[in-house]
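Predict both folds.
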Amino acid sequence: MPTPFESAQLNLQLFDLRREAVLREARNWFLRDFNPESFTELVALASGERNASFRMVLGYWDMAASLVTTGAIDANAFCAAHGEIFATFSKIYPYLAELRNASGEPDLCKHMEAVVLSTPNADTTLKRRRAAIIAAANARQPKS
C-alpha cells in the first residue's frame, strides 16, 4: 500500500501528463464532442481522423487506473483527484461489451472499469455524468 505522500506524488505526475498538448486536445474532443448514442455511432465517431484521439484518451485513463488496480496509488486518493475518469468511462460504458467483442480485446479498459465500478453508487454517478455531458453538448448546439 502506498503512503499518502506516494499517492499524492503519483497523482500529481498523472495530472502533469494530462497537460501535454496532444493529449489535452484529445481529451477535449472526447469530453465535448464524442457523444455516441449507439455502438454504431461510437464506431463511426472513433474511426478515421479521430481514432488516435479515441485510443489516446482510453489508453491514458486505463494506464492511470492500472496504477490503482496494481496498488501503486490509493483508490480514494485517485478518485478524488481524477474525476474526469468518470465522465470518460460514462461515454463508453454502455457499449463496452460490444467494443471488447468487436476489437477482440476482452480486457479493453479493464482497469478503468475496475476503478470506476468499485466506487459507491457507480451506476448513479455514471448516469449523472452522462446526462450532464449530453445536456452541455445540447446547450452548445446552435439554436434554430
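Second protein follows, with its predicted C-alpha cells after the sequence.
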Amino acid sequence: MELPSSALTLLHARTEGWAAGLRLAALSLAGHPDPERFAAEFSGSERTVAEYLLAEVLERQSEEVRRLLLRTSILEQVNGELADLLTGDEGGEWVLQELEEANAFVVALDVARSWFRYHHLFADLLQLELRRSASSEIAALHRTAARWFTDNGYPVEAIRHAQVAQDWGLAVRLLGDHWPGLQLGGQAATVHAMLAGFPAEARAADAELAALAAADELAQGSLEAAERYLGLAAGGSASVPAGRRSQLQMLLGVVRLLLARQRGNLPAVADQAQRLQVTAEAPDAAQPGLGEELRALALISLGTAEVWAAQFEEAQRHLEQGRALALQIGRPFLEFSGLAHQAAIDGFRSSYSLAAERSLQAIELARRHGWTDEPAAGIAYVILAIVLAWRGRLDEAEPWVQRAERTVRPEAEPTAGLLVCYVRGLLELARGHYADALVDFRAAERLAGFLAAPHLLVRRVRALQLQAMVRLGETERAERAIAELDGQEREGGQIRIATAVLRLAQAQPHAAINALAPVLDGSAPLTRSTWLAQAFILAASARDALGDPTAAGRFLERALDLAEPDSTLSAFLIHPVPALLERHARHGTRHAALISEILSLLPPPPEAPPEAPLEAPLEAPPGGPRGARGGGQPPRNRGGLGGSSPRPTEPPRLTEPLSQSEIRVLRYMPTNLSTPEIARELSLSVHTVRTHVRHLFAKLGAHGRAEAVARARALGLLAPPPSPGAY
C-alpha cells in the first residue's frame, strides 16, 4: 500500500509506532477509495482496531480494571487519586502502574510513575465503549473531574471538563476566576479556544462571559466587537449575583485598560490603571492575591501608552517598575512586554545599541516561552529592524521586517502596524524604491487615524512621505502638502528637512539653506542624530550647488561626525552624495573608512546599453499592464544631490536564467505600479513579489528598479521604451 509521506507520518503518529496497529491500518486500507482521508481519520474506533483491542486487551482485564479504564478514559492524563475518585474504588495508582508494566497501552508521563495517559487508539476505543455502556454517567464524570482539577490547581483542565459536561455556569465561574492569571501568563490563545467551547448565545446572555468575550475579541484584533461585548457586560452587571460583582468589575477594568492602551489613549489608560489598582486593593476584592499582578499590568500598560506619546521619562520609570514587579511575582509575560517597549524608548530617544540589545532579549524570551506571535514580539522585531535600517544594514533588517509583518495585525494593533509601515517605508526609501516607500508611508499615516492621540512617529512619517514624493518628481504635490500643514508642524525639524529636499529638487539651494538654518542652529531641535545628519548632508549639497566647496566639506564632515558613533549610515542612502564624499575623502578627513563603507553601500552608476539586444525581446502582456505609463520610477542617480556622470562599464549579462514567475514580475517593472499594485495584478502576496524583485536585482546585477529595467531592456528581456512620437 503506497501512501504519501504526509499521510504515512500522520498514521505513524496515530499508532505511536505500534506495529500491529500499522498492520491493522494496512488491512483496512486495502480497497479504500481515499487512503489519505482514511489516514487522517484513523482511530481506535475503526472496526479492525477496535476488535483487536477489545479481544486482546480490554476483555482480558478484570471487571475492576475495565471499570477504571472506561471511567478514566474521559481524561487526557490520569493519576491514582483521580482514578479512585472517578471509580469510587481504591488502589488506582497500583492498577495503572501494573498496566504500564504489562505494556497494556498505558504510558507513564513522569519518572515517579504517578501520572499516566492511554495510547491514542486505546483511548479512542475506551471512550467508544463508555458511550455504549454508560452514556448517562459521562456528564457526572466530567463534573467530578472539573471539581478535582479546580481544587488541585489545574484551571484549564477544569474548565474543559465543565464545558463537556455542559455545566455552563460552572465553566463561566471557573474561566472568570482564572482569566487574569491566564491573560497575564500570555495564554490568550488558550482562552480563545476555551471561549469557543461555549454556545454562541451564552456570550450575550451572561455578563461575566460577555466581559471575557470582550477581552478575547481585543486579543484577536476586533476592537469594535470588543467594545460591543464590553457594553453588554456593563449593561448586564445588575443580573450578576452579588458575590460575583466585584469579580466582574475587575474583569471590566482590565479590558477597559487594554482597550485604551490599544487605541493609544493615554488619559484613559492612566485613569483605568488607577481604578484597577484601587479595585484590586479593596477589602472586598474578588481575588486579593491578584493585587500585585494587576499593579504590574497597570504600570506596564501606562508605560506603553507613554512611549507612543513621546513621554519617555515617565514611560521608562513605569516600565522599569512594572518589569521589576513582574520579575518579583514570577510573571515573565509582563516582563517580556515591558522589555519590548523599553527597547522602543532606546530606539527613538537614546541608544540604537541598547535598543538592539533589549529587542534581542525580548525576542529570546518570546522564543523560550512560545510568545513569538504576540504583539509585544512584533514590537521587538520592528525596533530591531529600525535599528538595522538606520545603520544601513538593509538586508539584515529585511527578515525582521517580514517577521513583524507576519505577526502584527495593523487594524487591530494600529500602533504596532504604524511602526511596521514606517520601517518598511524607510527600507524602500533607502533602496531607492520611492513609489513603494510612498505607499508604505501613506499606510502608516492612515493607521495613525485609528489612534486617539498623535503618535510620536506621525511627523517623521509625513516628512519621509514628502521626500518620497519629491524623489518621484511630484514636487507640486509636495509643495501643496507642506502648505496644508499647520504652522507648528511646518516649522518642525523633520518637515524643514523635507522642505530642503524639495527646494534642492527645484534648483533653489538658497531656499534649501534657509529651510535648514533653524535645524542646524538647534532652534528647531531633532531628537535623533539620524535626522540631524540628513540636515547636514542637504546643507552640504546646497553649499556645493552654490559653488562653496569649503562650506560643503564642513557640513559633510559634521554629518559624518553624527553618523560615526552608532554607524547610522542610512542618511547617506536616503540622500546619496557619492561625488561629494569622494572629493571629501581626497581632501583629507578623519572619516575615510566610514566614507569607504558608505560608498560600498551605494548602487553603481547606470550602465550604457549595448548597441543591439542579445536576443529577441519578450512581448509585454496583451494591452500592457494596467496603469502602465512608461518609464517606471525615476532612475536613481549615483551622483545623488551633487550629480555625477556615469562611467563606461561592461555590457550587462544575466548571472543565471530567470524563472517564468520572475519574468511575469519583470514585465510590470517598467510601469509606475507599486509593489502592492503589482501583487494585486498578478494575484500574488506582496512578500512574494518582493522576493521575485530581489531575485531579479541579483540576477540582473541591479541595485534599483530603474536600473533593473534598463539592464533587462539591454538584454532584450523587455521591449525598448516607446519613442516620444509613438502615441
